[in-house]
Amino acid sequence: MNIGIIGTGNMGRIMVEALLDGEAISPSSMMITNRTIEKAMVLRDKYKELKVGVNAIEVAAASDLIFICVKPLDVFKIINEIIPFLTKEKCLISITSPISTNQIESKVSCSVARVIPSITNRALAGISLITFGENCQPQWKTKIEELVANISVPLLIDEKIIRVASDIVSCGPAFFSYLLQRFIHAAVKETDIDERTATILAGEMIVGLGELLKQGYYTLPSLQEKVCVKGGITGEGIKVLENELGDVFEHLFQATHEKFREDLEKVGMQLSN
Q: How far apart are CA 214 and CA 234, in angstroms?
């Protein structure tokens, strides 16, 4: 199977590196391209047998499974360019949430799926969200799940919760990275600890926390109970969080969903033109 990846920006590059480092496919079986071709060449320098196409058309013509890793409003532009090469035996994958598999299926005759990755996939960890088109062939469903399982935990997701699932899986690392950074800066500002030491401590703490949850030693509530000794220091810190966080996360989801609705409207306007 030959895989093509159109777009090697942040998420496209992560897909390339994860699939190759996870040995899901060999470099010689992958062709990539990017609007700024130099970005694709950087990856070719890293993976010597990786092929670089001059444009999306060359990649689509040479590939059985094609990932479109571009911004939502550029997806249909790319699809229109490569339609002649999207034959029935091929499969097209989008990685963007505002465009449904049904919308793509209305344009093409090949199998269609959506795979929303996470930056955690770069470490061959985390979850990838999968939605299959109504006409996606069974053999492609199997191949895609097997492929994604090399870099993450594949999870089939319902269309109606795709945005919130993406917020948690794909945006979540950035949200919690920001919170951890603020945590570190506050420690440096309010105490004598230096930033390097605080960063090491916080980083190892978050990795350890993840392992505790992954291995099932604690749930989130039970972990808090174990650490929060009655009348102790941790409890005082939790009180501050309870008092000052307020509805921040509710507001976060409101903001991401509002932007999602805007993107849906723009995509809808593209389709109606």
A: 23
Residue pair 170/117 in contact by the 8 Å Cβ criterion:
yes
The third-level CATH classification (topology) of the domain covering 3-157 is: Rossmann fold (3.40.50)
* 160 vs 165: CA distance, rounded Å: 10
Tokens 């399982």 locate to 149
SS3 content of the chain, % helix, strand, coil (to 5): 60, 10, 25
- Specify burial of residue 199 (Cβ count, 10 A radius: 0-12, 13-18, 19+): middle
Phi, psi of 136 (to 5 degrees): -65, 130
The pTM (predicted TM-score) of the whole model is 0.90
10-residue mean pLDDT series, the chain (273 residues): 96 96 96 95 94 97 97 94 96 95 94 96 95 96 97 94 95 96 97 97 96 93 87 90 94 96 90 75
Where in the chain are the domains? 3-157, 163-217, 222-273
Task: Report the residue count for the chain.
Answer: 273
- Assess contact for 60 and 86: CB atoms under 8 A: yes
